[in-house]
Amino acid sequence: xxxxxxxxxxxxxxxxxxxxxxxxxxxxxxxxxxxxxxxxxxxxxxxxxxxxxxxxxxxxxxxxxxxxxxxxxxxxxxxxxxxxxxxxxxxxxxxxxxxxxxxxxxxxxxxxxxxxxxxxxxxxxxxxxxxxxxxxxxxxxxxxxxxxxxxxxxxxxxxxxxxxxxxxxxxxxxxxxxxxxxxxxxxx
Length: 188
Fold this sequence. Notes:
By secondary structure, this protein is mostly helical. It has six helices and two strands. A two-stranded antiparallel ribbon has the order 1-2. The longest helix is centred in the last third of the chain and has 27 residues, at 157-183.
């Protein structure tokens, strides 16, 4: 068990730039071409933040993914994966006028509380996240105008997309700190 006084040695896999997570030539987020159009730009940012979260989880076992940050927080990398699957599902509720989709993991904060060090939980979290991302990604393609307002709360598609980017960006920052706490790996 890692105690508050235990500090893993800081390290990185990058060679050319040791303050980075990955060397630029090895970073899947590096894209030479800037996307054209508002929706393509928002999707590009979203994709890159999703990749960042995945990179922060790479190479860790179930116990490391489930390791909590610092008491009393219940946050862990595995909890973040589950949380983001849950919010992807909830964003689809914003688009519809019908009954909301049921929660994936149960009551409030169950996404974090249920993030336990079991490989089956990890596998399910990744599968849930991929499925929910794909389902939510399909929704904006149905609207030609990002200003179109939909759902009970009349949210614009643009607002939904910006909110998705913001959510992943914020949690990528959490993932930076969580990963460093797990094994000392640092970087961009």
